[in-house]
Amino acid sequence: MMRAQPAEVDGDTPALRSAADAARMVWDESKRLWGIGLPIAVGTLSMYAISSVTQMFIGHLGNLPLAAASIGLSVFATFALGFLLGMGSALETLCGQAFGAGQVAMLGVYLQRSWIILLATALLMSPLFVFAGPLLLLIGQDPEVAREAGRFALYILPSVFAMAINFPTAKFLQAQSKVTVPAWIGLAALLAAALLNCLFVVALGWGLPGAAAAYDLAHWGIALGQTAYIIGWCGDGWKGWSAAAFHGIWAFVRLSLESAVMLCLEVWYMGLITVLTGDLQDAQIAVDSLGICMNVNGWEGMIFIGLNAAISVRVSNELGSGRPRAAWNAVVVVVAEALLIGVLCMVLVLVFRDSFSVIFTSDDALRRAVSRIAGLLGLTMVLNSVQPVISGVAVGGGWQGLVAYINLGCYYVFGLPLGYMLGYRLNFGVGVMHLLLPSLFVCLFVCLRKSVHHRPIMHRRGFGPACSVVLPSRRSSC
Prior knowledge:
This protein is mostly helical. Helix 1 crosses helix 11. It is built from 17 helices and 2 strands. It is a multi-pass membrane protein. This is Protein DETOXIFICATION.
């Protein structure tokens, strides 16, 4: 059960005293959330759809190329995406709270710090992609699948550096609710990815290398487009390159690592499940069917990433301006709406369980395998609907460390060992492993019990000499 409204706070939104007040609050908060979240969801869906389009074209090349792409995208690309997006979430916390406190000039400095950290991180992750094939063989992956997946992972390495630029620029813009232009950039990149796949895979017959090239170019289009928009049209937050970006960088690294651990423990869990299915009977069918279901689940997840970003912006802005009740109202509304969307997605999956896999494959055996686990997919989509928005609340409040511990316990202490036992020892197969994805759902409700009366994180830690932040009646200099 959610707690009652917090006590009266000076300068905060008025307390709710009637049903009419509650209805008005829900309507106003929904407009704010979706005004931010819908364009973010469109942009994120477009970026995710680049992966889906890539898999669709590869899927019609055969089961082996599809298995290779599934591992390349859901394991190696997801590994990089999870870590870089998680580290970029530190920028989401700091930029959101600084913007709420009226310190807009600090946003550009934070952005440059994040670029430095994420590009260095991408460089450190490069060997994982270079030696992907031997690593997969080392953990017992099917040799043929491992060889093709290793090639594909190497081909998509350039996209990792694009993500290192893209995620900070996206968080910089989201903190200011400048989300429309990035949505259009994402849609343009998606169209380019489809056209490039048609050219490289279909017309020129380049196969896996062609699909990877289209994937890389689309991601670089997003990164460069957003960067050009910031430098050319965001003069209030971008004041040019500054040496202040190197001041207090280790404090920024610490928060970035907390953010990364929080998200990665969740995202990598899905990749580990994909790898483990490679050892089940009929490995190609197991990997492919799970990959398709995760792809569909990911489409729903992109909507909730939009809400995740929206609630993070709302919470960080309101806490930065000293309005905890307004932050609480936003949390209540977003959780309720996320659950409704999850139920709708489950209904759609169950209605089209026998047909939605046709866009990924023409193999009848694979389509039947997907249909068998569609019910579990639908349940997963309901349970996973709330988790991203609660994570967004944690990011907005700067509580990434708490959520990291929760993720570690739920996914790795409980979920993964149980999934291994049921999938391998008791022969329940891939379906049970997929069902265990929402294990985080219950535990993350702990975040809802954490008071929104927390001091903004920029007042609790040092982030360099440039980041003096002033709130009413108190001052903190980092």
